[in-house]
Amino acid sequence: MVQTTRIVLAARPSGMPTEENFRTETVELDGPGAGEALLETRYLSLDPYMRGRMSDAPSYAPPVQIGQTMVGATVSRVLESNDDAVKPGDVVLGYGGWQSHSVEKVRHLRRLDPAVAPVTTALGVLGMPGFTAYSGLLTIGRPRPGETLVVAAATGPVGSAVGQLGKIKGARTVGIAGGPKKVALLKDRFGFDVALDHRAEDFAEQLADATPDGIDVYFENVGGAVFDAVLPRLNPFARIPVCGLIAGYNATEPPPGPDRLGLLMSTILRKSLTVRGFIQTEFVADQYPDFLSEMGGWVHDGRVRYLEDIVEGLDHAVEAFQGLLTGKNLGKLIVKVAD
Predict the structure, then answer these.
(1) What is the DSSP string of 282-293?
(2) Which of 108, 134, 226, 280 is the most core-located residue (most Cβ within 10 A)?
């Protein structure tokens, strides 16, 4: 028997999650059964989608149940295995969630080679966020040389990868972030051609100046006021991969102001826009091997750079998650659970 310290959903939040929505507990795990492995969590990924899983509203994935361990991708060390595919000491990518230990099906694990890339990249640029950028931009956005690509939340693990992939495909890139520190990163680290602060009072005017030829691809991570500024700048036949809408994740009522649905629909019609929401799992079967090969090469040769924000200790996961939802993190947010 092995004990795990875990953080479970204690109550469904209304608005921003608080400490009262979580509970930390220590319980015993049964040993691994046939085809399973016992894992010790080293790193836990924190991602915006987790806020949606805390709600029981209809979504693309089932909600976390009250009393259930919060979900999340993990990099773990194998302690015990009942499947020859992994052995004790191996480092694997799994889905153990917010806890110190887990028992998982070996068929759901992916072995990681620390000699190829730092294992934390499996939670970021070479994991779900990187694949989200790769599949969404290249399948739906389809940027062409000379086109203008605008990216919201552009210093995050998805947005920063989108911008750099756009540059590889020959697009002119405009990154949008919040605050001077993140705006500086857009150009200095991630190579965007233009960097804008959505908190600026004249943000809409700055966006118009930065896109004199309009916007051909807009990678949507935010919604809200950022999309309001983007909408009139979209060119005919522009493509909009809708990855996230973090501006509204903690909303408890409809946004204020007039109903703008009619404006949106008429713009889609007049300009023949392609607006498609997507979940990266739609593309895994067809594209994941190519993603690992291509993105791994681009990371290795420096054409795609990444930034990680690592928080020490599972006991800081809730605070870090709250910061993620308000944009406090710089880069991919990861909790270091154990050495």
Answers:
(1) GGHHHHHHHHHH
(2) 134
